[in-house]
Design goal:
Blueprint lengths: L13 E5 L6 H13 L9 E4 L2 H4 L5 E2 L1 H8 L14 E5 L24 E2 H10 L7 E6 L14 E4 L5 H11 L3 H13 L1 H6 L3 H15 L11 H20 L11 H16 L7 H6 L14 E6 L3 E6 L2 H15 L5 H9 L7 H9 L3 H6 L10 H16 L5 H13 L4 H12 L9 H12 L7 E3 L7 H10 L10 E3 L7 H11 L8 E3 L6 H12 L8 E3 L7 H8 L9 E3 L6 H12 L8 E3 L7 H13 L6 E3 L6 H13 L7 E2 L1
Parallel strand pairs: 1-6, 1-7, 2-4, 4-6, 10-11, 11-12, 12-13, 13-14, 14-15, 15-16, 16-17
Antiparallel strand pairs: 3-5, 8-9
Length: 664
Amino acid sequence: MFELLPGQDGRIRTVLTQGVAGIGKSICVQKFILDWAEGEEHQDIQFIFPLPFRELNLKKGHHSLMDIISFFLPETKGLILSDKYKVMFIFDGLDECKIPLSFYKNESLENVCEAASLDVVLTNLIKGNLLPSAQIWITTRPAAASMIPAECVDRVSEVRGFNDQQKEEYFRNRISDQVMANKIVDHIRESRSLHIMCHIPVFCWISVTVLQEILEETENEETPKTLTEMYTCFLIFQTVQGNKKYSGKNVLDIPWEEGAILALSKLAFQQLEENSLIFYEDDLKSCGIDTSQISAYSGLCTQETVRFFGTVFSFVHLSIQEFLAALFAYICVRNEHRNTAVDKALKSDHGHLDLFLRFLLGLSLESNEKLIRGLLTQTGSSSDCRKKIVEYIKLKFKENPSPERSINLFYCLNELNDDSLVKEIQSYMSSGSLSEAELSPAQWSALVFVLLTSKGKLDVFDLKKFIRSDECLNRLLFGLPVLNTTKKQIQYIQYCNLTERSCSSLLNVLSSESSTLTLLNLSNNPIKDIGVEHLSEGLKSSKCKLEKLRINNDDLTEESCSALATVLTSSSLRELDLSNNNLKNSGVKKLCEALKNPLCKLETLRLKNCTIKEKGCADLSSALCLNPVHIRFLDLRKNKLGDSGMKQLCELLKNQECTLQELL
């Protein structure tokens, strides 16, 4: 994690690992520490100091770094750290941090024994003013990652959860009855929204808990089809189990103790409003919850003893808290205020209300209202309510919300069993008329949603099947990681009227941690030199996996060669097609600076019809003689190379180390 990649210089000091709630970040931290403590891994590190933000939040006053360490880890009392020790600090749960972290305002601190506020100590440690030799590992939900300035982070990693194969492995390993396991796998596959959510391990657990119970008694048609229905069934199951275990009630009794569920839901709602995942005994009491009875809801809420701070409480997963908060809002908020909930969720910069909104709206379905009927004090016409909220959501699309919020609105429509916009797009796609359509903002979002929830993976992404424009590519890139979800990672976007604007967007794809893009064909698009400059910035990224770049006939000049030459010695590129561009001898000369470097791994170079003359051919031959072991295919057709140029190429072919297999 802290090791340099090939071609990287400097040192990786600070790593930021992000992932959604429940994806396994804290488990990764615990496994890392366990491997170190048992002598299995990371033995070059002398001290590891795990300091979770949820515990740091509770530390008040002014303290030195050594005071903080010895308080949480008393065994270290008397130790004075210096750069002679190799140490690692692990700060788990940045999203739970309530410390200001004022990186740009705090004074500098360099003495590990000097007392200061926790804010000052932490920011100086992360910036490297304190213990510059220390390694720093921070974990966070994506929404909170921006709390750490980019210049303070050397590497960003991501915990992505289960892939499709691992999802099925989880179900088959968790359930001993393989017939039952197959039933659950088949059911999850049928519901795309459920299948997508199953990349989170804890959601797989919820699904197994619910589906195994239901499928033992009923057939598939009665199993949950939406996220809201799954969580409602989970709440019922956990309540029934709690009743049986702690109060001896029969399974057939109505499971709800209205007061207890409302109190727990109120707690969830209040803490979600404060964006808080951890709460205390006083919080429970303020909602009318008897802490001695909290064990009856152990499947929903958990308690643990935190070092030096006593007992704290939390829901077993953030999504459980969001569901219960939505349940409280649904029961207590009148229908007309649900539009306000939509507006509030859309204004959320980090989307922390997205799932809450899906649950809130999903509860208005008649089938879900029946499941929670014991909690409702009054019922209205759920059909009328549903129609009104569907129309309101469609109206919000006209305001052109961010791609992330747009996609969540479609998940909301999915929870409401409304697929009218999706059917419009599917009609366009099946008729082959999509490439000629003028889509509204809602239809654009529908297109992204259809691609995201498609059962089959794309073998090839071909923009020509959609709409040939910068706008289309940008909407698909920002609304859906479509270039990262293809099976073969082959993208064809040639002849699509793309400009440098699209290359700026592709820069983000190329440098993405999750990018799997290996072939990019941008030929016959007027991207010009500025577009290649954007692409080159992406190619510089250590995360870029691109192997083949085709920018044939893209209105390029020798300036593009300057940009490409800076990355050919450090990128993963193996094939480069620059044919039919006005590169001239001067452009080839710039490429040759990279080609003669042994670090350049290019194997295929196409320079057909690039206005190259004798001098350019001589420079090319000379460069390849200096580094003859990589290029296997060279295309120089339709260039005026002259006799001397051909003579130079012949000298290259005589070189015993030359690996050139095909020369055109």
